[in-house]
What we know:
The chain is mainly alpha-helical. It has helices at 2-21, 23-31, 39-50, 55-67, 72-82, 85-94, 99-103, 107-132, 134-144, 151-167, 214-219, 228-240, 252-270, 278-285, 287-297, 302-308, 325-340, 344-353, 357-364; strands at 35-36, 175-179, 187-190, 193-197. The protein folds into 2 domains: 22-240, no CATH class; 247-368, no CATH class. The chain starts with a helix and ends with a helix. The model is unreliable at 1-22 (pLDDT under 50).
Amino acid sequence: MGFGGTFFAMRNTWLALCVLAAPAVAQSAVDSVQIVTRDIPNFWRAYDLAAGKDSAERVRIFETVYLQPGSPGLRDWMRVRLMNPDTVRARMAAAGWPKARLDSLPPDSVKKVTAPFYARSAAEELLRAVAHYPRYYATVRATTLSVDTNSRVTQGIRRGLTRLAALYPEARFPNIYFLIGTLSTGGTTAQSGMLIGTEQSASDLATPLDELPDWARKNMPNHTFASLVVLVVHEAVHTQQKPAPPGQRDNLLRHALGEGIADFLAELAVGPRAVKQPREIYGAAHEHDVWVDFQDEMQGGDSTIRTWMYNGMVPPDKNHGAVDIGYWVGYRIAGAYYARATDKRAAIRELLELRDAEAILRASGYAP
């Protein structure tokens, strides 16, 4: 049967036992989670109202119709994914708000001062994306508006979270916010909860991709509504992961494990993706070569990390074979660690805590 067959048979048996063992705990962790979609119709309302207006008016409409009335998730989304930080810093300094002055204010005052700068830049970035990819946005509109009525998505998410909570009974999940962004992010987490870039998971075989950059054309066919459940559960794993202990190096190995563990546990809870991603296909076909390169570079910092992960804009000859291939290496290490563990529940806890990335690697025995 080999490692893959043995692992998946073991996974299914373990999952069944976990769901039977802790249904009440798992369900209670999920019942309070809200799936918030109200920002999506506001985006499309702004989109319609801004059509044909001049540049300044379009920015004003997106600020007042989409961004300013936004949910807590959208307010975080502006800060972590929409606004251009360089633009915001320059404008704030010109307006008399250099960093030193902001640092002297209490947090609530900082939020009040920065909010209009964030909203303006976020509106500009959204309008830039819509202008660059007009047919893509127009085509995915109906799909993005159907999130809350698509029971396969909403019920699938709740089932996936319930199974994840059964695997890790200490789990407590924040709210899930479905939002519209600039095609830059499928999902992330912030203080408000899980933030999902719905426009990036709303394509289908009829969606025009020719406007998109090369990395997006290759990856968008895998980013469909069918993939939303595993994406949300992946982000839910991130909300359970612990910060790096003091003294732990922030290097490629730790980043790859952080994302790979989220992929692995999401698959453990939900099952494999319906369509394999390019990194899975390339990784499986070149596992030894990828591992040799990874070993040589796994202690590297930011510049190294960016060639292995979050690397859609990196030239193909410098991204180690596929976009986000570092996720796949981390996933394989996590799977090997779990397969070797005799106490599966403890193994999941150890993966989530990730107190020592190098110890996890050694204990995994991963060496293709």
